[in-house]
Amino acid sequence: MDTLAQKIIEAHGGLNTWNRYTSLTAHLAQGGALWGLKGHAGLLDDTNVTVGLGTEWASHHPFGPARRTTLFQPNRVDIKDDLGKVTEILDAPRSSFAGHTLETPWTEPQLAYFAGIAMWTYFNVPFLLGAPGVVVERLEDWQEQGETWKRLRVTFPPGIATHSTVQTLFVDEGGLIKRHDYDVEIAGNTPGAHYLSGYLEVQGIKFPTRRRIFPRQPDGQAMAESLVVSIDIDRIELR
Predict the structure, then answer these.
(1) Could you tell me if 82 and 68 are in contact, meaning their C-beta atoms sit under 8 angstroms apart?
(2) Where are the chain's structural domains?
(3) Which residue, 68, 28, 78, 25, is CA-closest to 50?
(4) Backbone angles phi, psi at 134, to 5 degrees
């Protein structure tokens, strides 16, 4: 494995600790312009998420005021009512976003798909750097916030459903991720700069508890005046 990738994984707790667990649950307080732009303002402002570690799946509850539950898997999304009955199914969800732009509204199953790939990716990175088929490449160092951050380009294989095939991690001297760039393919390849802070150690693993996502300009700089998504995380539990 690339030495920088190894350093990043070890800084967040290491694969030996990570591999003790198979799932993670956390509480999310979310905001930003994206949810309203996609036609679902407030639906996921206060929710809980459970994600698989390694195996790709995610579930949000409550999903809206009716206290529904979602189940995201790469090839299918289910929405269940408060009694556990499946009320909506979206098969082959990725293909349903064909032709979408940033302004295209999402159906509720499409929202559940986006929320699923996002939170699964966020909680499984950086440990995905050691997954089969994931390729990493060093990039030039980056200057931001008065610091020098190492950069690692990550290319994901087709079997992993995530924001985009190619993503970039920016890490500090200690190996913690400070920024995570990607293009949201299902929203017209919209470029994002995702900032991570407020690290907390839980059961031997370090997690950022504050995430802020902004538009990314062609020169790689973030547009700080337009908050796309905010996520504040607490009550993290590994199982």
Answers:
(1) yes
(2) 3-238
(3) 25
(4) -80, 130
- The encoded tokens of residue 221 equal 């700089």
Provide CATH code, domain 3-238: 2.50.20.10
> How far is Cα 213 from Cα 180, in angstroms, rounded to an integer?
9
Given a contact cutoff of 8 angstroms between Cβ atoms, the answer to whether 69 and 80 are in contact is: yes
The two three-digit tokens of residue 143, written as one number: 């200057």
Q: What is the mean pLDDT of the chain?
A: 97
Residue 115 binned pLDDT confidence (cut-offs 50, 70, 90): very high
Question: What pLDDT score does 181 carry?
Answer: 98
DSSP 3-state helix, strand, coil percentages of the chain (rounded to 5)? Answer: 20, 45, 35
- What is the spatial distance between Cα 15 and Cα 100, in angstroms, rounded to a whole number? 37
166 and 154 Cβ atoms separated by less than 8 Å = yes
Write out the two tokens for 72.
């995201």
Structure tokens at 52: 């698989």
